[in-house]
Design brief:
2 domains; 0% helix; mainly beta; single chain; three-stranded antiparallel β-sheet; SH3 type barrels; N-terminal domain of TfIIb
């Protein structure tokens, strides 16, 4: 019987094989043997494909209507110190003159 590798997530030596997958009974992580471990952190990308990080400055590339208001975030508006969050609108920010709001990363580019 071959020796199975330890869990790449928690290093538990008790991994077992279930069909083509290896499973860790301690943390529940599943992986394929020999496959490079994937990062659990999602990567957020702007409209040009650049990776975004917390604290970046971005520029809006499209006029965006503010829901529940008659104001508009104009093209070229710079947004400083963004915070990335999980969800449909993945950027939390504060825009001068408008206030706190959420944006989609597909409508911004890294400045």
């Amino acid at each position: 019987m071959s020796e199975l590798p330890p869990c790449p997530k928690c290093s538990s030596p008790y991994a077992y094989q279930d069909a083509a997958m290896l499973v860790c009974p301690e943390c529940g992580h599943e992986w394929i043997e020999g496959e490079a471990p994937a990062d659990d952190e999602p990567q957020f990308r702007d409209a040009n494909g650049n990776v975004l990080q917390d604290g970046d400055t971005v520029t809006v590339i499209k006029d965006l209507k503010v829901k529940g208001s008659s104001s508009v975030v104009k093209v070229g508006t710079r947004v400083k110190n963004i915070r990335l969050v999980e969800g449909d609108h993945d950027i939390d920010c504060k825009i001068d003159g408008i206030g706190p709001m959420k944006l989609k990363s597909e409508f911004v580019k890294k400045a």
